[in-house]
Amino acid sequence: MRKYQITKKKSIDDEENIQKKEVEEEEELGEIEIGDLEEKRGEEDEEEERPVREMEIEEGRSIESAESKKSSEIDIAESRSLEILLRKRIEEEEHKKSLTEEEKELKTLRDTYSSLLKEQQSLGLKNTFLKKRMIKYLKNKKGNNAISVSNKLTQDKTLYSKKLLEFAKKNEIIKEERKSVATKLELLKGQNEDDSDNQETFLKELFDKQRSIGNKLMYVKTGKLIKDEVINDLITRQKIMAEQMYQVRLECIKVRNKVIAMKELVRFDHMGSDFQLMDYEKLCIEKEDFSSKIVDRDLEVQRVKKKTKDMYESVKQMEIESEQLQEKIHKETEKLHQLEINMQEIREKLNYLKEQRYHTLEDTARMKQNSGLLTMPTLLADFEETKNAVKEASQQLKNLKMLYEHQKQNIKKLKDILNKKKSFLTIK
């Protein structure tokens, strides 16, 4: 199978390389043919001008004027023929560009076809490998896991059927593209035939023009026209040389293609500077082994992913709990801040009370200093007793004064009565 695939790839690559080389060779041939035609035209001009120059040296100035007129007419005719040639060549190059664009499209289609073939082969290998792995997996697992695996298998089958439908659609598209490419190739072949016919007619016209120009030429020495036989010999020589050049170029292209094909064969035999096809097959086997190991690693990675998912969920829960704790901490910090504010207010009040207490203590100390006996309780008690005694004595004194005043008044009254009695007695 691998050898068949390799040979198939070789054939596709060979076709693509051959097409590229044909296009490049056609372009090179076009450029070389233009250069060769110009060189031949220059050689023909030199051959035609040689007898004219010899005759110009021998004859006088009178003949030079006539020959200059003839040479100017010849130059005009040659310039016209060159213009026609260049126009034809430009048209051919434009046609070749259109052909190269179509060939590029063909190349892209072939590349897509080869890439699709590679994808199909890789998908087939993956499918067989995955089937084997699924069989082993189902053998090792229990019934419950088998149910889940069966669901996965149904999903894989649906995906596989979708991929097959897509592949069928791509095959239909490729068939349609092949048909379009075949029609384009037929059209290109017809255009190529038309171009070859046009080229032959163009060459016939060119040779006829050369023949007509040669019939008008004459020898300067003799003044006779050049013979038709000489002109025909020159034209036949030109045709023979062109055919020989064409054959040599074809042989060169064939040899070059053979060399390139041999190099490609050697390149396929030796995959690189030191590798061969056996090494390539060994590497393919190692690739399959490594792919199986990669699948095992992928399963391990899936397990680790599940663990990481569980850990991620637990971490999410922890994050939610931490957010709740942070909210609680935020609330408690707000409460603490409020308590600190209250504590600051209470401290300010306490400081105010302390200041008042200090002032009261100072006032009491001053009052004590100013009070005198108030600081001595025994003296104060004696003072109170004496005070009470003084009060009683003052009261007695007041009472005595009252009695004194009352008695004094009574005495005055008695004196008045006595004085009245004395006066009355005296009067009697």
From TrEMBL:
<feature type="compositionally biased region" description="Basic and acidic residues">
    <location>
        <begin position="50"/>
        <end position="74"/>
    </location>
</feature>
<dbReference type="GO" id="GO:0005930">
    <property type="term" value="C:axoneme"/>
</dbReference>
<feature type="compositionally biased region" description="Acidic residues">
    <location>
        <begin position="24"/>
        <end position="36"/>
    </location>
</feature>
<dbReference type="InterPro" id="IPR025254">
    <property type="entry name" value="CCDC113/CCDC96_CC"/>
</dbReference>
<dbReference type="InterPro" id="IPR051885">
    <property type="entry name" value="CC_CF"/>
</dbReference>
<feature type="region of interest" description="Disordered">
    <location>
        <begin position="1"/>
        <end position="74"/>
    </location>
</feature>
<keyword id="KW-0966">Cell projection</keyword>
<feature type="coiled-coil region">
    <location>
        <begin position="82"/>
        <end position="119"/>
    </location>
</feature>
<feature type="coiled-coil region">
    <location>
        <begin position="380"/>
        <end position="417"/>
    </location>
</feature>
<feature type="domain" description="CCDC113/CCDC96 coiled-coil">
    <location>
        <begin position="242"/>
        <end position="412"/>
    </location>
</feature>
<protein>
    <recommendedName>
        <fullName>CCDC113/CCDC96 coiled-coil domain-containing protein</fullName>
    </recommendedName>
</protein>
<feature type="coiled-coil region">
    <location>
        <begin position="308"/>
        <end position="356"/>
    </location>
</feature>
<dbReference type="GO" id="GO:0036064">
    <property type="term" value="C:ciliary basal body"/>
</dbReference>
<keyword id="KW-0175">Coiled coil</keyword>
<dbReference type="GO" id="GO:0060271">
    <property type="term" value="P:cilium assembly"/>
</dbReference>
<dbReference type="Pfam" id="PF13870">
    <property type="entry name" value="CCDC113_CCDC96_CC"/>
</dbReference>
